[in-house]
Specification:
The complex is a heterodimer of chains A (about 170) and B (about 280). Chain A is an all-alpha fold. Chain A is built from six helices and no strands. The radius of gyration of chain A is 16 Å and the shape is globular. The longest helix of chain B is centred in the first third of the chain and has 77 residues. Chain B is rod-shaped and about 135 Å long. The chains are: A mainly alpha (about 170), B alpha+beta (about 280). At the A-B interface, helix 1, helix 5 and helix 6 of A face strand 1 of B.
Chain lengths: ~170, ~280
């Protein structure tokens, strides 16, 4: 029988809160105009620690809120975030989960997917994009900023996950 | 026997001492025995006094410990209250300055009917250059309305909800504003580049543009009111083979640090183009 893990009841409001925090607080603090993708970090960390099922829900809720707060066409951020989170889940499923190098690799790939897909979808929906030098600097800085922030966020999510119900086994 | 004799000697010495003390007291102003004793004792007294002072202070402190503790607690509480008041006063001061600048703008441009709005969110992608403000359709906000601060143009309303609106900043790549250079009256179009800089394009080759030139809205096209400050020219790109010059600009407004903005309510844009197009 399918059981909804209790952790998700905590994770979903947390995702909403983090998305709001990203819009109101962290979006103002940036390195040359690029700030940390807090919701992406939460979604990837949650996926790595508690599986892709929960990670997907986290990215869905976070993505909806980000979409509502951004100027992008609705759904663009949600799609980018869930795709990036799924990729992290694929990594988690294929690489030994306790590997120390997994979080930085996962966030690097997730950032490329998230920001890359975001740019692509904006282009498809007819939004003019900044010139290539600005876009490339934006991507590079996002990789650095997210990579550094992941060191803290992953630890915090890991501590939080220890407090809540142990992870549901995927074959249950 | 020996003991009785010793006791008698001591008693006699004491009596002699007392008698001589009384005699010396009667004979003159100063008592030499007292002088000798004083000379011997005063350094010892002084040393003792110094040695004992900290002890006396300590005992005083112990006696006052309860009082001091309560006083300390009360002072700490008072400091906390004062700190909070300082923070609130600083915030009030900043708000006051912002409102004063807005008032200056209202006085300088009495024809505009403006509505103040708090910035409640920023675009989370860092790519699309939007702001979210706490005023919406319920407050009379409509798409296309210009958004300004005292320093100059911020952008225009792009989406309106009941209680909030999104503002497309002039730095957004979709934004284009008809502009003119204040000094030479050269016209062009200011476009966002996605970062903290703007481009003024389509400046005719014959017009002179120099670093530091102030760029204003021209009002052409009817999207924005005339004479709002957009920014300053930072550098000029001039190529003889091209029809137009292009200038790199810095916005007059620090677009990413805004807390309060003003929406011009009584300006109806003539051509509201969907920012997607």
């Amino acid at each position: 029988m399918y059981r909804i893990p209790i952790g998700i009841y905590l994770g979903l409001p947390l995702a909403a809160l983090v998305a709001l925090l990203q819009s109101t607080f962290t979006a103002r603090i940036g390195v040359w105009g690029v700030s940390v993708d807090l919701t992406l970090l939460l979604a990837v960390s949650w996926t790595l620690l508690r599986g892709s099922g929960e990670g997907l829900l986290i990215s869905l809720v976070g993505g909806v809120i980000l979409d509502a707060l951004s100027g992008a066409p609705f759904g663009v951020l949600m799609i980018s975030l869930t795709a990036a989170s799924e990729l992290a889940g694929w990594g988690e499923a294929n690489v030994f989960e306790r590997a120390r190098f997994l979080p930085p690799i996962a966030i690097t790939l997730a950032t490329i997917i998230y920001r890359g897909l975001l740019l692509m979808l904006l282009k498809i929906t007819g939004r003019p994009l900044p010139p290539w030098p600005i876009v490339s600097r934006y991507l590079l800085l996002a990789l650095i900023v997210n990579g550094l922030a992941m060191l803290i966020v992953y630890r915090l999510v890991e501590r939080l996950c220890r407090l809540i119900q142990p992870r549901r086994a995927e074959w249950e | 026997m020996g003991h009785s004799r010793q006791r008698a000697v001591v008693i006699i010495l004491i009596l002699l001492l007392v008698l001589s003390w009384l005699l010396f007291d009667q004979l003159g102003d100063r008592n030499p025995i007292q002088d000798v004793l004083s000379r011997l004792l005063s350094p010892i007294q002084f040393a003792l006094q110094r040695a004992m002072t900290p002890f006396f202070h300590m005992t005083d402190r112990i006696a006052e410990f309860g009082v001091l503790n309560a006083e300390n607690k009360a002072l700490r509480e008072e400091i906390a209250v004062l700190r909070k008041q300082i923070i609130l006063l600083k915030e009030a001061q900043i708000e006051n300055e912002t409102l004063r600048r807005q008032l200056d703008f209202k006085v300088a441009a009495p024809n505009y009917h403006v509505l103040s709005a708090q910035v409640i969110g920023h675009d989370p992608t860092n790519l699309l250059q939007y702001l979210v403000i706490d005023r919406g359709a319920e407050d009379g906000i409509e798409a296309g309305m210009p958004v300004v601060v005292a320093e100059g143009l911020v952008g225009r309303i792009s989406e309106v909800s009941a209680a909030s609106s999104k503002v497309m900043l002039i730095s957004n790549p979709s934004s284009s504003v008809s502009a003119l250079i204040q000094r030479s009256r050269a016209t062009g179009v200011v476009q966002g580049r996605g970062g903290h800089v703007l481009s003024m394009r389509y400046i005719p080759q014959g017009d002179t543009v120099v670093r530091g030139d102030v760029v204003l809205t021209s009002g052409l096209g009817g999207n924005f009111p005339k004479r709002l400050v957009i920014g300053q020219v930072e550098s000029v790109q001039y190529k003889e083979v091209e029809m137009f010059q292009e200038a790199r600009m810095v916005p007059a407004v620090r677009l990413h640090d805004l807390e309060v903005v003003m929406v011009i309510l009584n300006f109806t844009p003539i051509d509201v183009v969907d920012e997607g197009g």
